[in-house]
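Batch manifest line 197
LIGAND: uracil
JOB: complex structure
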Amino acid sequence: MGDHGDVTHYEAEAAGCRACPLWAPATQTVFGEGPVPAPVMLVGEQPGDKEDLAGRPFVGPAGHVLDEALAEVGLERSGVYVTNAVKHFKFVLRGKRRIHQTPTAAESAACRPWLTSELGLVQPRLVVLLGATAAKSLLGPGFRLTRCHGEPVPSDAADFVTATIHPSAVLRAGDRRAEAMAGLVADLAASVALLAA
Ligand code: URA
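JOB STATUS: finished
ARTIFACT:
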């Protein structure tokens, strides 16, 4: 029997998860990583192409945006726990390219026990939900990111729970990229400020 208080125990169990069909075409389960416990936990949507291959969250282009935004608000990536609402990459093949697909509410729900386990182990004071999929997974389908970004939302998950745009939205913002990045950084700064209040 493994140590149930250890994140590696859950990671090993999640590696064999068959709770939804996403495991089959994916390379591997991508569990969260970072210090345990940690004051801050960031939750993205799901691993992307690079993360699926590397087996680590936020190591591709969206991860680079996230690292930049964290640096802007004085957070070191190595000091925060980073994970995803859904632990397998969901994609469709277009030629040789694997194109990201948004997970369904049922797929998010199937994966939620892993997120709940991570919350229990990491015991963050602040959880920042990156994008609508993560926000709806933890806060319910009625949550509206456009209305409530950067503000604390009542939740049992942590002392403070906030939501902001997903870093990949910055990559997709075209000539409004600087504006999107500024919004992400402002929401992160407001979230981190809650810890000092
Ligand atoms: N997008 C996410 O939501 N998570 C990752 O790990 C990478 C890209």
